[in-house]
Write a structure and sequence with these properties.
By secondary structure, the chain is mainly α. It contains 3 helices and no strands.
């Protein structure tokens, strides 16, 4: 997350985890939302770099992090269905 700082990344991770939780109709706690949001930010950033998408600032970071968190929750649910 370029241009947001350490505490900004934590806030964006919390928001991204919460938004992904709502979009995917899940019920997690605050700590799990933070974990999902931060891992989603890493996943979203990785996918964005593969696609050549450069982003900077709060709103683009929140969007990429949220999409990554939704992708993470979707992948986890897909893996649970197969197991």
């Amino acid at each position: 997350m370029n241009g947001v700082g350490f505490f900004g990344a934590i806030v964006i991770g919390l928001l991204a985890g919460w938004i992904a939780e709502r979009l995917m109709s899940r019920s997690h706690g605050l700590i799990m939302n933070l974990i999902v949001g931060l891992v989603g930010a890493l996943l979203g950033g990785w996918v964005a770099s593969l696609l050549g998408f450069a982003y900077r600032g709060w709103l683009p970071s929140l969007l990429v992090s949220t999409l990554g968190a939704v992708l993470l929750l979707w992948l986890l649910s897909a893996m649970r269905r197969k197991a």
